[in-house]
Amino acid sequence: MDDKQRFAEVVLPHVDDALALARWLTGNRTDAEDVVQEACIRAFRAISSIRDADPRAWLLAIVRNTAFTWIAKNRPKVMVTTDDEGTFERAGLEMVGPQASPESMLIEKADSEHLHNAIATLPIAYREVLVLREIEGLSYQEVAKALSIPIGTVMSRLARARSLLIQRIGMAGTGKAGVA
């Protein structure tokens, strides 16, 4: 099998997941597309090196590293947040059934935006673990491999991310600012 065919079989099925992770890390679709494009080039160059690795975790690790390299080159050293609310608005509306009232749709949309904003404010080390595990559905082992960290670190960061998320969602409801 040549590299092009292997790339099509190993990488292309996971491009949507790669784009989703890149969007969480970069904060918007345009930058995420640039990151995924660069990550795919890197993946193609290294396609012959993948053996027994999980292709999805392998690609997401490349996307993560590419995103951090891209952010370091293209962004000032500030917190990265997302500005692509459209995805979350659509997701909030899609989760509501066809019989939903305008009130329930508005509440669902506000809850979705609230959760999205809370996730976006997490420190990157916690956010990436949370996104890979809870949104992308990777196992603890796959997250550990993708981030090149021990599984215990994955579990502790995930626990801390969940705790911070709960605090921030609770604090926003009270009008108080959460501090991490």
Explain what the structure shows.
The chain has 180 residues and is mostly helical. It contains 9 helices and no strands. Helix 8 crosses helix 9 (151-174). The radius of gyration is 18 Å and the shape is globular. Residues 78-82, 90-98 and 176-180 have low confidence and may be disordered.
Q: Whole-number average pLDDT? A: 79
Tell me the structural class: mainly alpha
Q: Helices and strands, in N-to-C order?
A: HHHHHHHHH
Computed over alpha carbons, the radius of gyration is 18 Å
Layout of helices and strands:
Blueprint lengths: L2 H8 L4 H12 L2 H17 L9 H20 L10 H11 L6 H19 L3 H12 L4 H8 L3 H24 L6
Structure keywords:
single chain; 180 residues; mainly alpha; Rna Polymerase Sigma Factor, Chain: A; Arc Repressor Mutant, subunit A; 2 domains; 9 helices; disordered C terminus
In short, what is this structure?
It is built from 9 helices and no strands.
